Amino acid sequence: MYKTYYPKAGDIDRKWFVVDANGENLGRLASRIAKVLLGKHKPTFTPGVEMGDYVVVINAERVTVTGTKTTSKKDSKVYYRHSGYPGGLKSITLREQLRKHPDRVLHSAIWGMLPHNRMGRSTLKRLKIYAGPDHPHGLQKPEPLVEEG
User: Fold this and answer.
1) How far apart are alpha carbons 89 and 83 in whole angstroms?
2) How much is the pTM?
3) pLDDT of 77-118, one tens digit each?
4) Which residue segments constitute the domains of the chain, with CATH numbers given?
5) Dist. CA 107–CA 118, nearest whole Å
């Protein structure tokens, strides 16, 4: 009789990875990071179990976007948020978002690729995004995330 493998909390070993977003495409980078956060890169991946690793992203302000209108893509992509009050809809373009809060651009792209439930919210807590090249996670000894392919 075959038994189904179900990892326990002690069986999961979490690593730290660092990703340089300098010149990377936003969507492709977000999908790579989401895959590592969910743990789909591991051979012991089990759906419904938090198996993912920690990811530190540096140089988030230098991420690129592509599209049919690349010159105006930063002006045509708009992020919306609502305060919950009447007339509380706020909008900001990608260009302004990259200038003011570059970490939020990558954060929202990765959140769109994670499950929108309790597990997705706890998975997103293992993501650390920094606008510049410096990060305070040197003691964890993060290793660079290699490109698969």
Assistant:
1) 7
2) 0.90
3) 899 999 999 999 999 999 999 999 999 999 999 999 999 999
4) 15-67+101-144 (3.90.1180.10)
5) 17
Rounded to whole angstroms, the Cα distance separating 49 from 46 reads: 6
CA distance 48 to 61: 33
The residues facing 129 across adjacent strands are 57
* CA dist., res. 135 & res. 128, Å (int): 9
**What does the DSSP assignment read for 102-113?**
HHHHHHHHHHTT
Q: Are strands 54-58 and 127-129 parallel, antiparallel or unpaired?
A: parallel
* C-beta separation of 50 from 119 below 8 A: yes
Q: What is the pLDDT of residues 9-56, one digit of tens each?
A: 888 899 999 999 999 999 999 999 999 999 999 988 988 899 999 999
